[in-house]
UniProtKB/TrEMBL annotation:
It comes from the Bacteria. Residues 1-23 form the signal peptide. This is Aldouronate transport system substrate-binding protein. SUPFAM superfamilies: Periplasmic binding protein-like II. It comes from Paenibacillus plantarum. Keywords: Signal. InterPro entries: Bact_solute-bd_prot1 (IPR050490).
Amino acid sequence: MKKKFRGVVALSFVMAVSVGLTACSTTKEEPKKSGNATATTTTPAANVKKGKVSVMVYDRGLIPASEGTYDNNRWTKWIQENAPFEEVKFIVVPRTEAPQKMNMLFAAGEGPDVVANYEDMTPFISKGQALEITDELLAKMPNYKKTLDKYPALQKLTTVNGKRYTVGTVSPVSPNHAAVIRADWLEKLNLPMPKTPEDLLAVAKAFTEKDPDGNGKNDTYGLTLNADSQRVLSHMFGFGNPEKYAVVDGKLTFVWDRIQDWLKFTKQIVDAKVVDPDFLLDKGDKALTDFTNGKIGIFLTGKFSQLNSPTFANFKKANPTAKLDTFDLPATKYGTFEGYINGGPSTVGFINAATKDPDAAARYINWLNDPKVSDYLVNGPEGVYKKRDAEGTVVVVDPAKNKIEYDYATDYSIIRTFDFNLGSAISPLANEYYNSYLKSSDPVLQEFGDLYYKMAQVVNKPEAIDPRKWQQTLPALASDTLLKKTNGTKAVDDFLLKALAQPNLTAEKAVADAKELWKKAGGEDVDAFYNDYYQKNKDKMLSAEDFKQLKLTPELLPSAKKNSKIK
């Protein structure tokens, strides 16, 4: 049974929704100064300095020069003063090159003690670079263990073959990838919201051919088909990336039939000339620019999730009278699916197997999971960057100040706790996204709040399944099997991508050729290993049911509802 988001803090535990946007404020002790940051003493143990630890942090290129560097700024200084260590050293990894940089660091024996990231961790487990978190080591992380004990889904996610190698967290289900559509174009052309794949193609054709912007020029496209959009469409047919598996007739199967239908449909889109013909060269920026400039009708993207209200603001600046809406991905014969979904149980890090002090690494993870520490690193000092209003919604105090001092700091709290009561029923304030926007005095943010509210409604439907999520519990592969999978996956993906732009190559022939590439790389051995593992461990692996239990019906708070245009 789905629950409702509640806005009354006294009746719910406080849970952050995403990195750097929403979390709670807890009762704090008297703040004190720490370098350029206002610090709060978190627990008596925080003052006991013992040992050293190195920690990974992303470089997203967002930090202003006035703030310093990603390894030396107001937030790292607060950590240095408050963490129970003689030294916390930050190993900076470029976000756009994270897997390559991490591989180089670990190969050189320079990997950080604690890795906090959003990358695929199975290669590091396969290579023996992730430390097993034994019961003895877990006992030294009581804050984290409370969360782990509370959520069986997190236990499943972080345990493979009976062993733990990763640390994780649980957060409320919220939008990531979404289908965003020009509602004003639908109205102008008297078109219904697409509900089937055929509808989607028909609307895209109309947006391309019937001059929806009314400028008398043939300069619009129906939808985007960059890498993000291809992933959304693959989800429509029930498979994710990079794992193209699904449970079919009780077996874990590489879903060639779904891939073929996806390819056939996507080639229809290309052949209908409703997408930019240079889509293969687009890494994402061109699609975003074209959509922002009002030249694309359907945007299949992750650019509106979490902190991407600036994307909406830029769109509205270029298209002040335009209206956006969202919709469920059309159902196919394989079922009803959605794009990537944020939230639920997620792996967020691991301990380097080569660390000289496993206890120190465990203590750092435990410290990050202290509710007061998580609160500070997500929200900052009380009232400086965020505050709670009378309904319990987190609101930004000064956007200009945040842009300089706060927005770059999201990744210091990748490993954290969302459950600040640790014992109450799940009732997170995920509604702070849309409610906080709707409470703004800015009409553009209010409009974005309505759009985000609708996206939250889509992903929190019980039947909305992200076909990628459950695959997080697939086991790590031995090095020889991993090599077969890596080579085979690259060969298949590269071939299928090229097949999209070859009008004379049928989907049937393309998939037949891709199968041979997979077989030649040894992919059938990977298939056999995964299915054998599934047969032996299916009761211990994540399922769609695990995510249904974490879904909550979005709810507008009274003051937000006053500004909502949704009837």
